[in-house]
Structure formats: structure tokens, C-alpha cells
Specification:
With 284 residues, the protein is an alpha/beta fold. The protein has ten helices and eleven strands. Helix 4 packs across helix 9. The termini are far apart.
Length: 284
């Protein structure tokens, strides 16, 4: 096992008995009335041995200010504690999955581990939905895992800052991609944040465009689509954002899978950008 971006259900089921494999269920319903719906679903049925990571409790720190966005990054030490609870150590092969496409919130878990320098972490392509459709093993018993050991810090070079986006319209060395749906990018609707629109100069790449029939498109197709969008920019000049820093991870995963390495995520994303009322908003 040396999975670093995506893994298929067929590959994963063949490796379930591997000693250093750790599965993490990240199902979450962002716009649902019950923020614990994903955890409830995990308790009912999950992949064998899978632990659970909650987007709000484990993959975010809601004690941070509004400038950090709706899903602020957890501190590295807090995320390492989550990894230890899940039985994950530095030598683990980790596979994260969610209900289907990876956007809520398997790709977020993948990215946080990448920030710690963990290479062997992947997202289950097609998620729980495809695993279930293939009639692969599931269980309802709560997993018992020996606590892991994890000590690491985030690689700050992988994180974009507000300064990168403030120069977007004037500097030629930054390209920003917004992962939200086109109507949110254009500012026609805004179901979650207090202002509609997008960061001036940003382009739209809805994360849903990475998918075909619930799975990621072939790497060659993704590479062609992203390359056409970012044009002359190198992948390392690309800054990714969304509403709160969660679905932007889906675009990063797609780029990495396509061989376009080095893009960065702006974690506060749109919700953090608009926390300062003096910042410009673009529409259309």
C-alpha cells in the first residue's frame, strides 16, 4: 500500500487485513439540521474498523475568530490528538471516506494529514456509496484500536495567506480558484454566508466538475481541465478557496491526483474574506 491521493474500493477491500491500515469515516451533512447525522450514520454502519472524525469537532476549531472562516483549522497539536485517538501513527496507511464524492469531509481530513507531512493518506474514490453498491463488507460494532502516537507541525508553506489574495488583481504570480457552485461564485445566491459574491480576480472551478458518476474523473482529464483554467500559472502559484475551506480540499486532491503539484489552500476562504467589511466583493 502506498496510496497518496485516491484509492478504489476494489484496491481497499483487498488490503483490509493489513496491520498498519487505518480507515476514517468523515461523513458530514453541512446544510443539514443535524450536525451529528454523519456520526449517527457511522454508528449504524461503517467500513470494517473505521473510526470517525467529525468536521466540526475534530477537523475544525470553532473557538477561533471569524477572520479564520466558518471552519477554522484546528491547531496541529489538537489534530494530532485526534489522529492518536483513531490509532494513526506516522507509519500508518490512512484512507478517509465520506458519503460519496469526498467533499464532505474526506478531502479535508486528507489535506490536514498532508499538512503534517504524512504521505500515505488517500481518499476512497466514490466513498461509502460505491462501497455499499459493490456489496462490500460493513460492520456496526464500534472499532477498538490501540492509540497511535503522532507529533508533528503543519507545513506553513502549504497554506495561503490573506496577503496572497489581496494582491490577486495586481500581481501576475497568483491564480485563485473558487470551488463553490457557479451561482454562489457569481453572487446570485448565498445560503451559508452573510455576503454573496467572490474574491475579485478569482476564477470558478466548482469541485463537482472533478467528478463523473460520483467518482473522480481520470487523471488525464483533470490535468487538461485544470491546466486550461490556470493557463500560464504554475500549480504552485494557485490558491484554492471555497466557502469555509472544506470543499477547496477537493480541488487540491484533484490537482494532486492529476500530477499538478504544489497548489495551496486559503483556509478562511470566502467566509473569512468577508469578515472584514472593507474588502472588495466581486459579482457576476
Amino acid at each position: 500500500m502506498n496510496w497518496t491521493t485516491l484509492v478504489s474500493s476494489e484496491q481497499l477491500v483487498a488490503a483490509l487485513a493489513a496491520e498498519n491500515l487505518r480507515l476514517v469515516d468523515c461523513r458530514f451533512v453541512l446544510a443539514g439540521a443535524d450536525a451529528d447525522a454523519g456520526e449517527t450514520a457511522w454508528r449504524v454502519s461503517h467500513l470494517p474498523g473505521a473510526g470517525y472524525a467529525h468536521l466540526d469537532r475534530d477537523l475544525s476549531d470553532h473557538h477561533k475568530p471569524a477572520s479564520e472562516g466558518r471552519h477554522p483549522l484546528p491547531d496541529a497539536a489538537a489534530f494530532c490528538a485526534t489522529l492518536e485517538r483513531l490509532g494513526i501513527s506516522a507509519d500508518s496507511q490512512v484512507v478517509a471516506y465520506d458519503a460519496g464524492d469526498g467533499a464532505m469531509a474526506a478531502a479535508r481530513f486528507w489535506w490536514l494529514l498532508k499538512l503534517l507531512g504524512h504521505e500515505r493518506v488517500a481518499v476512497l474514490d466514490g466513498g461509502f456509496a460505491r462501497w455499499q453498491a459493490l456489496d462490500l463488507p460493513l460492520e456496526s460494532t464500534m472499532p477498538i484500536v490501540a492509540p497511535g502516537s503522532y507529533v508533528a507541525q503543519y507545513d506553513e508553506a502549504q497554506i495561503a495567506r490573506i496577503e496572497d489574495l489581496l494582491q490577486l488583481e495586481t500581481a501576475g504570480n497568483v491564480c485563485a480558484l473558487d470551488a463553490r457552485a457557479p451561482e454562489r461564485y457569481r453572487g446570485e445566491v448565498e445560503p451559508l454566508d452573510k455576503a454573496a459574491g467572490h474574491i475579485p480576480g478569482a476564477l470558478n472551478r466548482p469541485y463537482s466538475a472533478n467528478l463523473r458518476d460520483g467518482r473522480f474523473k481520470p487523471a488525464a482529464d483533470l490535468r487538461a481541465e485544470f491546466s486550461a483554467l490556470i493557463s500560464a500559472h504554475a500549480p504552485a502559484e494557485v490558491v484554492l478557496y471555497c466557502g469555509s475551506g472544506v470543499t477547496a480540499c477537493h480541488n487540491l486532491l484533484a490537482m494532486e491526483y492529476a500530477g499538478l503539484h504544489g497548489a495551496r489552500i486559503f483556509p478562511p476562504s470566502w467566509s473569512g474574506w468577508i469578515s472584514d467589511g472593507s474588502r472588495a466583493i466581486a459579482r457576476g
